[in-house]
Write a structure and sequence with these properties.
It holds the Pfam family ABC_tran. This protein is α/β, with parallel strands linked by helices and 618 residues long. It is built from 23 helices and 10 strands. The structure holds adenosine-5'-triphosphate.
């Protein structure tokens, strides 16, 4: 088979698969609604043929109708009236039923995408631009009119069945009156279908080209309405510039579509000609036969009505599903990209309070040229408070992301009491963990919800909430909030407030401590107090050390005065652990840690920030 033939076959198979998938998605409309829609489709499909018969019957009894012969005229009149009223009623019902079904199908699809993207094991794939592009294509959230939702395309499949029914039933009526017209219309219909499918293929290609600029336009459109970016947009005077960017990207996205649209409009005459010429010829032939007396007026009326119905069914482009197809194909591709690794044959039982080891762990972010971590060997003992320090970019946060299994090591392994964690599902492992990330999320929810999200998997425990708030030093903040625990932490919510950076950090600390109080064994804190003033920070750590109970704590901080309280401190540098020991041991060792500590202490004494920058130490 030639390459072109093979490509056509592949495309035909893919199209068939799309249609089957679209038909499957109809389920999401619900049994009742789907039954109603199917009944409506069948009735609409039979309507043209019924109308043709009723019209022909009425025409054949026209004398009786005109002369007022009620006995003869009443049946055809009634039949015609019923058909007309039925057509009207079906038309009224169609839109609300379709709308309802479409929203249900789209809603189910959005839930699928949310489920898929939020439960993939690691976040590495989400950082890849091609995965973000797939999410954008499949999320079914049309903001710039480029994205498609599955609903319309899925319903088109049902309509196609209806149209087929209309064509066949009207075709049967037509065959009864003028059989020779059937092959004429079938050939014309097939020729038109060829043109439609060629046009659909071209539209698909054009649509693809608009994806990247569409995504860029979205970035700027979101930036100008978001309060956080909005601050910079105003301060830097970026408003006009941002609008210009949006327009620029939208033009790039829409220009090819508009050009394609114009070309399509200009070539609409082709299918119209193919279908209309034989139809007009047939009309002329039948009308001539009626005038000559070779056919009755009733026959002519039936032929006109039935062939018009077939014509209407043929002139509607059945490929008007490009966006839907694209949206669903992107979803299938996304499933492959985010697929979890095959589950281990036997899920290993996680030991209680294990010793965690990084064994020769190396890690390199996808798409980068240099490993961030290189043969790290680190032991985290149950119940200890381990401090991790290092200069900016040393890889501290990356270490934590590996511990939380948001990425898997690219070399070496993580073990718990010798058990390779790769054999334990990430979600099972994460239940043992509570993490405060440097770039934590500020949920626009109440304080109570924001804290309880630390362990959303258990019923809310008010006593644990109160205790966690005390441990995190949040009580003073809570006392000043208008609705206490119920105060929404977003000004965009009624009665909501905005917290300062430091207050937010206390909320997030409480979130992590709540998780520990409700079952997490390992507390990981990445710069949890960077926004706190020195006194509050000191109090928080005092309380943390006193109330952590049996939990293991891994703490990253730039402030060595904070970390000095840790049971053990490791210094990360150049992707390796370069020093490890207690604070006094490391000071006595007189290495890089001792130098960093001395520099920070001196700066702090002189009233400067106590953070260190690259270049401060050798
Ligand atoms: N998602 C990512 N993709 C690619 N590179 C990354 C990613 N995240 C971090 N990096 C790179 O990895 C290196 C280590 O970053 P990491 O955030 O782990 O350092 P850090 O020690 O926590 O720094 P800081 O103290 O500034 O928070 C940096 O060079 C950074 O540019």
């Amino acid at each position: 088979m030639s390459t072109i033939g093979l490509a056509a076959q592949v495309e035909a198979t893919a199209t068939m698969r799309d249609r089957i998938e679209m038909l499957r998605r109809l389920k999401a409309a619900g049994v009742g609604l789907l039954t109603a829609l199917t009944a409506l489709t069948v009735l609409e499909g039979l309507l043209p043929a019924t109308t043709a018969v009723a019209f022909a019957t009425l025409v054949s009894r026209l004398d009786a109708v005109v002369s007022g012969d009620a006995a003869v005229a009443v049946t055809p009149l009634l039949l015609y009236l019923i058909v007309v009223l039925a057509g009207y009623a079906l038309g009224v019902l169609r839109e609300p039923l379709r709308y309802l079904a479409q929203t249900r199908i789209d809603g189910e699809h959005r839930a699928r995408v949310a489920q898929l993207t939020s439960t993939s094991d690691t976040v590495g794939a989400l950082e890849r631009p091609e995965v973000q592009a797939l999410i954008w294509q499949t999320r079914a959230d049309p903001e710039s009119f480029i994205e498609g939702t599955p609903g319309p395309g899925v319903l088109v499949q049902l309509e196609l069945l209806g149209r087929l029914l209309a064509m066949v039933s009207a075709g049967v009526v037509l065959a009864a009156y003028a059989w020779w017209l059937v092959p004429v219309l079938v050939v014309a219909g097939l020729a038109a279908e060829r043109l439609y499918s060629r046009e659909a293929k071209r539209r698909r290609l054009v649509w693809r080209r608009s994806i990247a600029p569409g995504m860029h336009a979205d970035v700027w459109a979101n930036a100008i309405v978001s309060p956080s970016e909005g601050k910079e947009v105003r301060v830097f005077g970026l408003g006009d510039w941002a609008v210009g960017r949006i327009q620029h990207h939208l033009r790039l996205a829409f220009n090819p579509m508009w050009t394609h649209g114009r070309r399509t409009l200009a070539s609409l005459w082709q299918p119209a000609l193919i279908l209309t010429v034989p139809l007009l010829a047939a009309y002329a032939g039948v009308a001539l036969a009626a005038v000559r007396g070779a056919a009755t007026v009733a026959v002519a009326a039936a032929v006109f009505a039935a062939s018009t119905a077939v014509y209407q069914a043929l002139t509607e482009n059945p490929h008007f599903t490009v966006n839907t197809v694209h949206c669903m194909r992107a979803y299938e591709q996304l499933k492959v990209e985010l697929a979890a690794p095959a589950p281990a044959e036997r899920v290993a039982e996680l030991p209680e309070r294990p010793v965690i080891r990084f064994e020769h762990v190396g890690f390199q972010y996808a798409g980068t040229t240099r490993p961030v971590l290189d043969r790290i060997d680190l032991e985290i003992r149950p119940g200890e408070l381990l401090g991790v320090v290092g200069l900016n970019g040393a890889g501290k946060s990356t270490l934590i992301r590996l511990l939380a299994r948001l990425y898997e090591p690219t070399a070496g392994r993580l073990t718990a009491d010798g058990l390779d964690l790769a054999g334990v599902p990430a979600e099972v492992w994460r239940r043992r963990l509570s993490v405060v990330f440097q770039d934590f999320v500020r949920y626009p929810l109440s304080v109570a919800d924001n804290v309880a999200l630390g362990n959303g998997g258990v019923p809310r425990d008010q006593a644990a909430l109160t205790a966690a708030a005390e441990d995190a030093g949040l009580t003073g903040v809570l006392d000043r909030l208008p609705l206490g625990w119920d105060t929404p932490l977003s000004r965009s919510r009624t009665g909501g407030v905005d917290l300062s950076g430091g207050q937010w950090q206390q909320v997030v600390l409480a979130r992590a401590l709540y998780a520990v109080r409700t079952g997490a064994e390992i507390l990981v804190l990445d710069e949890p107090t960077a926004h706190l003033d020195v006194r509050t920070e000191f109090e928080v750590f005092d309380r943390l050390a006193a109330h952590k109970g049996d939990a293991t704590v891994v703490l990253i901080s730039h402030r060595l005065s904070t970390v000095r309280q840790a049971d053990r401190i490791v210094l990360l540098g150049d992707g390796r652990i370069t020093e490890s020991g207690r604070h006094d041991e490391l000071i006595a060792h007189g290495g890089a840690y001792a130098e960093m500590f001395a520099l920070q202490a001196e700066r702090f004494r002189r009233g400067f920030d106590d953070r260190l920058e690259e270049g401060d130490v050798r």
